[in-house]
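Example record for the data management plan.
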Amino acid sequence: MTAPVRTWPQFLATLLRGDDLTADDIRWAMSEVMDDAHEPVAFAGFLIALRA
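Corresponding structural encoding:
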């Protein structure tokens, strides 16, 4: 079984809808951040969506 493909737009839309994130969603986002595998604007959107 393969993991679903995640993208920042999908992830941010989930946050902004107020939907719950799965542990895999959080793990993916934190891996992207810690591995510096993100665009700066995606990280800014992540921080803003956390506050929303």
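Summary line stored alongside the record: Residues 23-34 form the longest helix (12 residues).
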